[in-house]
Each structure stands twice: as structure tokens, then as C-alpha cells.
Design brief:
The structure is a single chain. The protein is α+β, with helices and mostly antiparallel strands. It has 43 helices and 30 strands. Strand 17 and strand 18 form a beta hairpin. The protein is elongated, with a radius of gyration of 40 Å. It starts with 8 loop residues before the first helix and ends with a helix. The relative contact order is 0.08. Pfam families: Cation_ATPase, Cation_ATPase_C, Cation_ATPase_N, E1-E2_ATPase. Belongs to the cation transport ATPase (P-type) (TC 3.A.3) family. GO terms for molecular function: ATP binding; ATP hydrolysis activity; P-type sodium:potassium-exchanging transporter activity. It is a multi-pass membrane protein.
Length: 1174
């Protein structure tokens, strides 16, 4: 299909990442002091070459726009200068008189939507793929044949059926892909419908689409940023840039420009589409719509075509191969037909028959339906397949590059361990484990109670019962509803949400607050309601009558609160939380079993050990302490000054530690182990610290032994010395940067050798990686010959997702652009769903093999009759129309049912297939054609011979019968063996005395065995010759065992060409019976047939459909006329095919037994593996 000229979100983000990484790389360059300016230029050039080296059409960029983005200074210039540039006022905003002109200048605040390929173009693409074109060509040939021989309508019917086949399969594929796109549309997030803005000094609410540069907007808690803004006021405003970066860490926004050279990192900019999750603020709109950071990059890139999936490549190669064979054989026999004297029309019919017999027309429908059914099954398992062929691609995956957060882990901090009274205990959730579980901590222990109270009162996070903003935005953006109707829907949604919210467990309830505090409240809420805990202590007031609370900041690394806390010696208590080392340093005492003890060397050692252990496990640790303030110095009503700290802050009493971790999802370790058993390498690629990444990798079974890095530290040896002492390796992103610099100037084939060595490790983690480095990793894996699956959720992941063989995005946490770039979406963000997809993909590849063998097997039984017709001049055993009835009728349903067969036992223990292992290879063709194909041909011919024999034609009589000429009798003549003319009145007129001369008789003509023109004549009166002056039979006929009357000629079948139509129907039934046996033989690749049992109820349905089709073709008179079939008796209903069908089943069970039990004792495959495996 022609490349779309429209913008694509995935391509937009590719360019965005290029710009972002260019800035990142410039910063990284400064860390290498020894690098000269020349190396800087060379490295920059290297990275640019890498980005351009992706297999895409050249991307067109507008240099002026790109330069504008790099050189933007709106974040760094003085505020007064920015006011002048934007003609606005920080205090009063824009005036109403300016709005119209600015709207005309800048346009509405909307992103230009991606122009989608019209539906009719997509449908046309499905109608004109390689397979479809082949069938179109066959249909055209049928119409040509009908034009040349209109007396035979079967060619017309054949052409119509072929067209119906290609149209129906194209429509099915088109509708399935349209359905996936419709689901994708549901993922789209909307810009906030309304926003608060200051104009003419007054605060007002207006549609976000009406914003223009220079507007002063108020950013509210929980709302999306409506445009790119410069922050001019921040009240602890924190934004979630996960829609941009994929990382869910909240970023503080301030009025200070912290990165003048890097607008993407500076703290005084907030970007369109990001979410304000804490605090609030105010900002000046810098850019709107397409001129935002995302929108500006959108103008730089045109969408590019994706590479074909492995399945599409395999199918196209197979179709092309089969087409060459079919057309070549068809052309050869078309020419040979002239050589033996057939007319052009007959030769064309031969050619069409051979082509149709060789091309499995039903395979296209089977592939589409099988993929659709699998996609539907995966959708039930929360895996959305955007591209049907992506299912099989996932099955061929040999390497998974997985993001950590949200994919392998739960993407929510959870209490892992607690430490108080000098003891470490597991922090099992009471909600999750239940009341019967034996917990290591004791709720009644004073130490635990102190830790509980301190942790909750120090935290500000709360549960959020309000309707999620995404739902509010969706309702507000409904088209065709009045505001009153929207308000009514909103109220209804709120009431439904409240009912659903009350039923949610604590772990699933939405919260407001940072991740660490959220973990604390979810742990302690089942023990005691957090609001009750906080209400038990009133917060003290500072000199400004505000709460005496100081939030956490990165400088102090602690947060504290002062509360009213009545004891014998105190009215107030200072509660502190923060980094463990910082809190420990503020304390000189520690609570232990209800008593206060002085810190000593033993306590110091104990603290250092447990804190280091938590660190090695990749856990985030919080320390807690408290200090009761003496009554005398701090009486009730004391005014605390948090800036001057007019209260003691050191010499606190240490309460305990709580360690947090984003734990792996419950089924991920098993899923990773399953991948390893399947020979699939799982590589973690994360932006986290190496220690955290390694700890999670251990819990996920990605790493199962000491890493090279740990051996380096233990033995105090170099990286190179430790490299070969372990199979587990953690690579820091800095090493990748250094590798890229070291590779400069090397030939292309020598670049990345270091990465290839790293990728050779079976247990591998990449930490602190950037999106550009993720691209390098993916490219390196592909260079090793891997079929690579990549998971991601952020905007910055989309280039790697696009580059991968199969891109997988997260449905819950994933950004829209990541979903747009992906081939599959995990609706539950669960890594184990990938393993399910791999298993389904492998199963479907196996089942496609079975399906192709199934279809090709019948091809031999369909082809040989045409060869017999031409070479041995037999009556045509099978017509082209009946061939098509097999291909797109009786064969379709059983071949579809293969998708419901269970996978082989070894499907997830065998190694992934390599790129050299094709869907269709020499072994498969050899097996299909020379083993099962030959046996099925025997099925057809044995039944055909039996049928002809029952109608008086012995097997030997049939050979070269089409070459023999005869004198046709008159319609009412009756065969009389005692008559000199055998009842032929035409002969009687020519030879009145019953004597003749020579060999040939007068009136000889060709007997029509192709069409039904001579079906009413008894051929015993026609096949005569002159011998010794007498008229004698020219053929030796047998006895008529079955005396049936043809519904077409109203005369007996015996000794007439009408017997051929009957025998053709019988041959057709025999092939169908052979295919039933073939299905049973192919249900398992190597396992015994009884392993699957007979619980595949769809198999019985397929058999019933086959029976229904064959019965209809035989016994419904309308079908008799169209397809040339006849109503046949039971013994001719394929019954004689069953002995050869049983031989086929026995042979297949025998060969599978030998494959399983006669293994090769050398590195080479055994004879059985080489010769009878497909």
C-alpha cells in the first residue's frame, strides 16, 4: 500500500525522542572530560546515523522548525521580556481585544489529527494481496473459458465462486482490523475540556481549545496541563510526565529555570497533556496545538510503512512458490494438450483445472479465520491484537526486551519489610493474606504501634473517591449532548463510581499522594483507618497559623510534622520521616520493646546491616523518628517557626524502618521461567538504578546467580576478569554510551561487538538506559538473529516498539503514542500475558503447518486426476468445480478447526524457530505430496474404479477410452447383443447387410467424456469396430452391478458417459473421507494422536458440515445441475476410501512413534527427523 502522507503519532514520537536524546547526549558528553570537540562531533554524527539507519523510508523534516525547537528560550529569558514578547501581563493576562487576532494568528489549541488511510483503500489492499491476485487470475481464466465454451456453465460458476472466496476473506480481514482500530480509538485521551484562565485581570473558565500564547492559566490539582506553559507560580506543584516519558515519578515544577540549554529538563516548564498530581500553580501559555513540543515535532515527520510480519513473508513466499508450480504445470499441460490434438478450449480447461488443483484457495480464508479466532481468544486474556499476523510473530519471538515498571512489576510501591525493636520482619499485607496468616509483626507490640502512628501522621496521601478524571473528560467531550445532559450523565457516573469504589479493596483504590506514602496508607489502612489515626492527633500551628508541617525536599531529605500529644512531660511531639541515614543521624536514642535505649556500636552495626540489606534488595527505605517536646519550653499554644526552627530537631528517638518496593506481579516469575524453558531470552531494560533493577530481576527469575558486577566487588577484580565467571550481567547505560564512542570510525560490520558479547549472556539487565540506548539494544538483538518483542508504555519507548519485530504496549499505563506504535496491547499491563501470547503464537504456527499439510495433501488427489485424464486418457475423475468444492467448501471448516486443537506437549520447551525455519519447506512439501498425498490419491481412485466397475466399466477398460471413437446410436436405440448392429440403428442404415470392410466404421466420431452431451447413449452400441468383415465390440465391458437411473438423462448409468459424472461425485466423496482421516493423522506434530483425545467439539462440527455439504451436493437437484454431481448410494459414499484412510492414520502414528523413540545419538538429526518430520 502506498505510504500514508499523514502524520503518525508513533513517527511523531520517534522524532521527539531523537530531539530529546540529542540534548541528553550533549549533556552526557560533558562527563567525558578527555573528549575533544572533534570526538563530540563524531559521536553526534554516529547517533544521527544510527537514527537514520532504521529500515524506514527517509523522513522529511522542516529544518526551520527543528532549529526553532532546539533554540527556544522562552523558559530562560526574564519574565518581563517574555511578557513583552507575548504581549501579555503576568498579573492580568490577555485582554479580550487581543484574543481574536491571536486566535487567527495561532489557531485553535488542538493537535492536527492524523489523516487515516480511507477504509476503501484498506479494503482494496486486502483484495489485491498476492494470494488474492492469484485467485482473481483464476477467476478471469474461468470467465474466458466460459466465453469460449458457453455450453459448459461450470466455468462460469467456478469463476463466481472464486470471486466470492476472495471478497469474503478480504472483508473478514478488513473488519477484524477495523475492529482493532475502533478499540484503539477508545484509548485516546482527550485534552481537558475546560481550564481556568486569567483575562482582563479576572479569573474565568473557558474551553481549553480557545487558549492562545500569552494566556495566564491556573493549573489545578488533578487536571491535565492544557498547553505548553512556563510556570510563574508553584504551590508544591508536581506533574506526572509518564505520558511523555513512561516514568511515573512525580516531578516538582518551580519558577526557576534549572536547565537553560535543555527545555525538556528544566523545572519551570510544564508540557501539554501531562498531569498535575500534587499541588497547584499558575503559568503563561507559550505554545498551543501543533506548536507545543509534541505538536511541533508532529510537523517534522511523515508516517512510514512498517516491515512485513514474519507470517506475511512466509505466506507470500509460500503463495508465490505454489503459484510458480501451479502456473508452470498448467502451462506445460496446456502446450501438451495441443501436442496430443486437443482443441484450445479443452486445453484451457485442463490448465485451469491444474492451477486450481495446485492452489489451496481455501487457505486464505483459513488463515484469516484462524488468526481472528486466536485474536478473539487473546482478547479474552486481555491481549489486544492490532495486526492479526502479529499473533504468529509473537510465537516466533526468541527475545523479549521488557520494561520493568508496570510490566514486570505492579507499578505501585508496596511495603516489603519493617524493622523495629532491632528485628527485621516481612510486611505482609493483612488485606491480601487474610486473618489466618501468621504475620511476623505483632499489632499489639508498642514498637509497631509507634511506627504505625508515626508513619501515618507524617504522611499526607489519602484515598481518592472522586470520579476519575478520564471519565469526566470523556463525558464532557461527548458530541451532540447539551451541557444539562452532560451534567446528568456526570452525576450518574459519579453515583456508579461511588458504589464501585466502596467495593474496591484498599490495594486497588485510587489515591492522591506520592508513591511511597501511598504504599504506607495501603499497608496500614486494613489495620486501622488512616483518617482516624490522623484525627487522634491535632496538628500544631506555626507563627502564620498554618499547620506545623514541612514537606520532604531533596536537600534536607526529610519531612516532619508537629502534633499535639499529651504525656506527663509534653504537650507536643515532633514526628519525622525521611532517608534512613538522615533520620538515623538525627537520633541518639532508639525505641526497643517499649523502652528507650541509647545508640551504641551494636545498634550502629545492626542499623547499617539491615539498611545495606534493604539497599541490595533494591528496596526504597524510609526511616521514622519522634521527639516529645518538654512542657516547660513548649506550652500549649506555642507558635512554631519552621524556618528558624525554634524547637529542637536533633537528639530524636529512632522508631524504625519501613522498606518499600515495586514488587513483581504474582505470576511474572513463573512466566519468565516458562520463557526460559521455551528458549526465549528475557532482557530487562529499565531506567532504574542497577541495584534496584538487579533485585527485581532476581525476584522475576531473570537473574538466578551472582552477577558479574557482584563478583567484581567481592573479588576486587576488573570487569573483563569477572565477565567470564558468571552468566548474569547488569549493564549501566554509561557503558553503552562509552561503547558507542569506542565504535566511532570502525567499519559497520565491526561496530557493536562489545554489545554482542553482552547479549550473549543468558541473564541480562540493562539499567539507567535512555530511549536511544533501548534502540541500540533492540538493533543488537536483531543483529544476533533474534525475533525481538519489546514492551513499553511511554512516549520515549515508541521508537523501540516500532523497531521491534513485535511491539507491545501497556493498555493501562501506556501512552497513546506507544499504543499507536505497538502491534499488540496488554490490556492488563501483565507480562505473563506475553507468555500466553507466545504460546498461542507457537501453537498457531504449528497449526498453520498442519493446515497447510492438510490442504496440500488433497492437492495431489486433485492434481493426479487431470494428469490421468491427459496422460492415460481416462475419463476426468474430478472436475474443476468439484476441486473448488473441496478447496473452499469441505476443506475450509476442518482446516479452521485446527486452531482449536491443543498444542503439543513440547510447545513451550522447544527452542524458538530461527529465521531460516520456514512455514513451508522441502520436508513439508515432501511429506504432503509423497506420503499423505499419495495415500489420499489411492482413496479417490480406488473408490472411482469401484464405482465405474459397478456400472460396467472395468479398470482396464477406462485406460485410453477417451482416445477411442465410436458411432453414436439414436436416442431411442436399445442395446441388443444378438443383433448384428448391437441395436445401433445408425449402423444398420450404413451397413444394411451387417457386413463391413476395413477396421473403422463409417460415422466414427469422438465420444464426449468431458461434458454431458452423450450421457444418454449406451456406449456398448457405440464402441464397435469392424473385424473379419463383422461389426464387433471395441471394448470389453463388465457386468452392471448397480442399476440406477440418472436424474438428468432419465436412463441407467451403466455403460454411459453419465457414469463418469456419478464416479466424479464418488471420487469427490472419497477425497473428503480421506481428508477426515488426514485430519486425525495431523492433530499432533509428534505426540500420539490419542493425546488430544476427542474433546475438540468443533472437530465434530466440522465433520457434520462436511457431511452436510457432500449430502447437499449429492441429493439436492439444484446442486446436481450447477456442480455436475449425482445422487449416489451408500457404498459409493467414500466408503471404499476408508482402508487407505486407515493406512494413512497408522502410518502417521508409526512415524511419530519412531520420531519420539529413535533419537539421534549424534549432533545430526536422525533419519526419522530428516525424512518424515514436517
Amino acid at each position: 500500500m502506498a505510504k500514508a502522507a499523514s502524520r503518525s503519532a508513533s513517527s511523531i514520537i520517534t522524532a521527539f525522542t531523537e530531539q530529546y536524546q540529542e540534548i541528553q547526549l550533549l549533556e552526557a558528553q560533558r562527563e567525558f572530560d578527555e573528549m575533544t570537540k572533534e570526538i563530540m562531533k563524531r559521536r553526534k554524527k554516529l547517533m544521527q546515523q544510527f537514527e537514520k539507519g532504521k529500515k524506514k523510508a527517509p523522513e522529511k523534516t522542516d529544518a526551520s522548525k527543528a532549529e526553532k525547537f532546539k533554540n527556544m528560550d522562552e523558559h530562560s529569558i526574564p519574565l518581563t521580556e517574555l511578557e513583552k514578547r507575548l504581549e501579555t501581563s503576568v498579573k492580568n493576562g490577555l485582554s479580550k481585544s487581543q484574543i481574536d487576532s491571536k486566535l487567527q494568528q495561532y489557531g485553535k489549541n488542538v493537535l492536527s489529527s492524523k489523516e487515516r488511510t480511507p477504509w476503501y483503500v484498506k479494503l482494496l489492499h486486502e483484495l489485491t494481496n498476492v494470494f488474492a491476485l492469484l485467485i482473481w487470475a483464476g477467476a478471469l481464466l474461468c470467465f474466458i473459458a466460459y466465453g469460449l465454451a458457453p455450453e459448459d456453465p461450470s466455468n462460469l460458476y467456478l469463476g463466481i465462486v472464486l470471486i466470492v472466496v476472495v471478497v469474503v476473506t478480504a472483508v473478514i480481514t478488513f473488519l477484524q482490523n477495523q475492529k482493532s482500530e475502533a478499540i484503539m480509538e477508545a484509548f485516546k485521551n482527550f485534552i481537558p475540556p475546560e481550564t481556568l484562565v486569567i483575562r482582563d485581570g479576572e479569573q474565568q473558565k473557558l474551553q481549553a481549545t480557545e487558549l492562545v500564547p500569552g494566556d495566564v492559566v491556573i493549573v489545578e490539582f488533578g487536571k491535565r496541563i492544557p498547553a505548553d506553559i512556563r510556570v510563574i507560580e508553584s504551590n508544591e506543584m508536581k506533574v506526572d510526565n509518564s505520558s511523555l516519558t513512561g516514568e511515573s515519578m512525580l516531578l516538582l515544577r518551580t519558577t526557576e529555570c534549572t536547565h537553560p540549554q535543555n527545555p525538556l529538563e528544566t523545572k519551570n516548564l510544564a508540557f501539554f497533556g501531562t498531569l498535575c498530581k500534587e499541588g497547584n500553580g499558575k503559568g503563561i501559555v507559550l505554545f498551543t496545538g501543533d506548536k507545543t513540543v509534541i505538536g511541533q515535532i508532529a510537523g517534522l515527520v511523515e508516517s512510514s510503512e512498517s516491515d512485513e510480519t514474519p507470517l506475511k513473508k512466509e505466506l507470500n513466499a509460500f503463495i508465490t512458490y505454489i503459484a510458480y508450480i501451479a502456473i508452470s504445470i498448467g502451462v506445460v499441460f496446456f502446450v501438451l494438450g495441443f501436442a496430443v490434438g486437443y482443441p484450445a478450449v479443452t486445453n484451457l480447461i485442463f490448465a485451469i483445472g491444474i492451477i486450481v488443483a495446485n492452489v489451496p484457495e481455501g487457505l486464505l480464508a483459513t488463515v484469516v479465520v484462524a488468526l481472528t479466532l486466536t485474536a478473539k481468544k487473546l482478547a479474552g486474556l486481555k491481549v489486544l491484537v492490532k495486526n492479526l499476523e502479529g499473533v504468529e510473530t509473537l510465537g516466533s519471538t526468541s527475545c523479549v526486551c521488557s520494561d520493568k515498571t508496570g510490566t514486570l512489576t505492579q507499578n505501585k510501591m508496596t511495603v516489603e519489610n519493617i524493622w523495629y525493636n532491632g528485628k527485621k520482619m516481612r510486611g505482609h499485607s493483612r488485606e491480601k493474606m487474610g486473618p489466618e496468616f501468621k504475620y511476623e509483626y505483632d499489632l499489639k507490640d508498642p514498637g509497631f504501634q509507634l511506627l504505625h502512628e508515626t508513619a501515618i501522621i507524617c504522611s499526607e496521601a489519602v484515598f481518592d473517591s472522586s470520579l476519575p478524571q478520564e471519565q469526566q473528560i470523556k463525558i464532557q467531550n461527548l458530541i451532540g449532548l447539551s451541557q444539562e445532559q452532560k451534567d446528568a450523565k456526570l452525576e450518574d457516573a459519579k453515583s456508579k463510581w461511588k458504589a464501585a469504589y466502596d467495593k474496591l479493596p484498599c490495594q486497588e483504590k485510587p489515591t492522591v499522594g506520592d508513591a511511597s506514602e501511598t504504599a504506607l496508607i495501603k499497608f496500614f489502612q486494613p489495620i486501622k483507618d488512616i483518617l482516624q489515626t490522623r484525627a487522634s492527633r491535632n496538628v500544631a500551628r506555626d507563627v502564620n497559623s498554618k499547620q506545623a508541617r514541612k514537606p520532604f525536599n531533596s536537600t534536607n531529605k526529610y519531612a516532619f510534622i508537629i502534633v499535639e500529644y499529651e504525656t506527663d512531660d509534653s504537650h507536643y511531639c515532633l514526628l519525622t520521616k525521611g532517608a534512613p541515614e538522615r533520620i538515623w543521624g538525627l537520633c541518639d536514642q532508639i525505641y526497643n520493646s517499649g523502652k528507650v535505649q541509647q545508640k551504641d556500636e551494636n545498634w550502629e552495626k545492626s542499623f547499617e546491616q539491615v539498611n545495606a540489606q534493604f539497599g541490595r534488595q533494591g528496596e526504597r527505605v524510609l526511616g521514622f523518628a519522634r521527639l516529645h517536646l518538654p512542657k516547660q519550653q513548649y506550652p500549649l499554644g506555642y507558635q512554631f517557626n519552621l524556618d528558624k526552627m525554634n524547637f529542637p530537631f536533633s537528639k530524636q528517638v529512632f522508631v524504625g524502618l519501613i522498606s518499600l518496593i515495586d514488587p513483581p506481579k504474582d505470576n511474572v516469575p513463573h512466566a519468565v521461567q516458562k520463557c526460559k524453558s521455551a528458549g526465549i531470552q528475557v532482557i530487562m531494560v529499565t531506567g532504574d538504578q542497577p541495584v534496584t533493577a538487579a533485585a527485581i530481576a532476581r525476584q522475576c527469575n531473570i537473574i538466578t546467580e551472582k552477577t558479574v558486577n557482584e563478583i567484581m566487588e567481592e573479588k576486587n577484580i576488573s570487569f573483563e576478569e569477572a565477565f567470564h565467571q558468571s552468566n548474569a550481567l547488569v549493564i549501566h547505560g554509561d557503558r553503552l554510551t562509552k561503547m558507542a564512542i569506542d565504535d566511532e570510525g570502525l567499519p559497520e560490520d565491526e561496530k557493536g561487538r562489545q554489545l554482542q558479547e553482552w547479549l550473549g549472556k543468558p541473564q541480562l539487565v540493562f539499567a539507567r538506559t535512555s530511549p536511544a540506548q533501548k534502540l541500540i539494544i533492540v538493533a543488537g538483538c536483531q543483529r544476533r538473529g533474534h525475533i525481538v518483542a519489546v514492551t513499553g508504555d511511554g512516549v520515549n519507548d515508541s521508537p523501540a516498539i516500532k523497531k521491534a519485530d513485535i511491539g507491545i504496549a501497556m493498555g493501562i499505563t501506556g501512552s497513546d503514542v506507544a499504543k499507536d506504535a505497538a502491534d499488540m496491547i496488554l490490556l492488563n499491563d501483565d507480562f505473563s500475558s506475553i507468555v500466553v501470547g507466545i504460546e498461542e503464537g507457537r501453537k498457531i504456527f504449528d497449526n498453520f503447518k498442519k493446515c497447510i499439510v492438510y490442504c496440500l495433501t488433497s492437492n495431489i488427489a486433485e492434481l493426479v486426476p487431470f494428469l490421468g485424464f491427459i496422460i492415460f486418457r481416462l475419463p476426468l475423475p474430478l472436475t474443476t468445480v468439484l476441486v473448488l468444492c473441496i478447496e473452499v467448501g469441505t476443506d475450509v471448516f476442518p482446516s479452521m478447526v485446527f486452531v482449536f486443537e491443543d498444542a503439543d506437549l513440547d510447545v513451550m520447551t522447544r527452542r524458538p524457530r530461527t529465521k531460516n525455519e520456514h512455514l513451508v519447506g522441502g520436508q513439508l512439501l515432501w511429506f504432503s505430496y509423497t506420503q499423505n498425498g499419495i495415500l489420499e490419491t489411492f482413496c479417490g481412485f480406488f473408490q472411482w474404479y469401484v464405482t465405474f466397475n459397478d456400472f460396467g466399466f472395468t479398470p482396464t477398460t477406462l485406460y485410453f477410452i477417451s482416445n477411442k471413437q465410436g458411432v453414436l446410436p439414436k436416442a431411442n436405440d436399445i442395446y441388443d447383443p444378438n443383433d448384428p448392429w448391437f441395436g445401433n440403428s445408425n449402423l444398420k442404415e450404413n451397413y444394411k447387410d451387417g457386413t463391413c470392410t476395413g477396421t473403422n466404421l463409417e460415422g466414427y466420431e469422438d465420444i464426449d467424456w468431458v461434458y454431458a452431451n452423450h450421457g444418454k447413449f449406451d456406449l456398448r452400441m457405440a464402441y464397435l469396430k469392424c473385424e473379419d468383415g463383422k461389426i464387433v465390440p471395441n471394448l470389453e465391458f463388465g457386468e452392471c452391478h448397480v442399476n440406477l437411473i440418472s436424474p438428468v438423462t432419465k436412463k441407467p448409468y451403466c455403460y454411459t458417459t453419465e457414469a463418469s459424472s456419478y464416479a466424479q461425485t464418488s471420487f469427490f466423496f472419497a477425497v473428503v473421507a480421506g481428508q477426515m482421516c488426514n485430519y486425525q493423522a495431523l492433530r499432533q506434530l509428534k505426540s500420539a494422536g490419542f493425546f488430544n483425545g476427542f474433546h475438540n467439539y468443533f472437530m465434530y462440527l466440522a465433520y457434520f458440515v462436511e457431511f452436510l455439504l457432500t449430502w447437499s451436493l449429492s441429493y439436492l437437484e439444484a446442486f446436481n445441475t450447477v456442480f455436475g454431481t449425482r445422487d449416489i448410494i451408500f457404498i459409493h459414499y467414500g466408503i471404499c476410501a476408508l482402508p487407505y484412510g486407515m493406512v494413512m492414520i497408522i502410518w502417521n502414528e508409526g512415524r511419530k512413534f519412531c520420531i519420539r523413540h529413535f533419537k539421534s545419538k549424534t549432533a545430526l538429526p536422525s533419519w526419522w527427523d530428516r525424512c518424515v518430520v514436517y
